[in-house]
């Protein structure tokens, strides 16, 4: 995979990870309730679930491209519609509810379990990855290239939420984010709509 193409992949993965939602709420909850280490545990386990979905999506897209190109195109458009819906939802949102302070009594084991369950219990991730990865997967893609896509998605997701857990363990960060939540939503919404249009336009490879 050319480095410039990988940079595009990394940028889109980062945008998906940074979108306010249940994953952010999960890391926030466990960080506030159990401290930095518990929040990091939740972040890493969530990344593991994301990596599994990314792997299944990459393998499935490869088969669809070869055997059922029309079905692949249909699923890609459904994924693009989902991205557009996320973008509109973000634009219409006010302050991000996921950034509201929610402490809880928690532990490392609970954070690990819920981190995986939040990722695997969100089948919309499949639609997100279909729309995202359809831009980068080709029928002749090597196993190394597919592995690079999966690792990129997993590392960026884990890295972002570990950063969130570390940052939120400092009490001054959360109020700063809460005051700017509407701008975060607006930027995220515009980027998601742009990505949806890019998916409809065709693959990058």
From TrEMBL:
Q: Where are the transmembrane segments?
A: 41-64, 71-91, 111-131, 143-163, 183-201
Q: Name one Pfam family in it.
A: LysE
- Which UniProt keywords are given for this protein, alphabetically ordered? Cell membrane, Membrane, Transmembrane, Transmembrane helix
Q: Where in the cell is it found?
A: Cell membrane
- The domain of life is Bacteria
> Where does it primarily localize?
membrane
The record, for InterPro entries, names: LeuE-type
Topology in the membrane? Multi-pass membrane protein
Chain segments annotated as coiled-coil in the UniProt record: none
Designated name of the protein: LysE family transporter
> What organism is recorded for this protein?
Vreelandella janggokensis
């Amino acid at each position: 995979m050319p480095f410039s193409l990988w940079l595009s992949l990394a940028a889109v993965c980062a945008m998906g990870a940074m979108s306010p939602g249940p994953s952010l709420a999960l890391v926030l909850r466990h960080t506030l309730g159990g401290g930095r280490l518990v929040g990091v545990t939740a972040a890493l386990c969530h990344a593991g679930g994301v990596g599994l979905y990314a792997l299944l999506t990459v393998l499935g897209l490869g088969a669809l491209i070869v055997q059922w190109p029309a079905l692949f195109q249909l699923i890609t458009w459904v994924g693009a519609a989902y991205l557009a819906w996320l973008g509109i939802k973000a634009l219409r949102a006010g302050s991000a509810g996921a950034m509201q302070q929610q402490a809880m009594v928690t532990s490392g084991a609970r954070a690990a379990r819920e981190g995986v369950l939040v990722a695997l219990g969100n089948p919309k991730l499949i639609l997100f990855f279909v729309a995202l990865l359809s831009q980068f997967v080709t029928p002749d893609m090597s196993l190394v290239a597919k592995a690079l896509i999966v690792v990129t998605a997993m590392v960026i997701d884990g890295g972002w939420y570990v950063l969130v857990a570390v940052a939120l363990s400092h009490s001054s960060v959360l109020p700063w984010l809460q005051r700017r939540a509407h701008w975060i939503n607006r930027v995220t919404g515009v980027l998601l709509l742009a990505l949806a249009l890019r998916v409809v336009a065709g693959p990058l490879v």
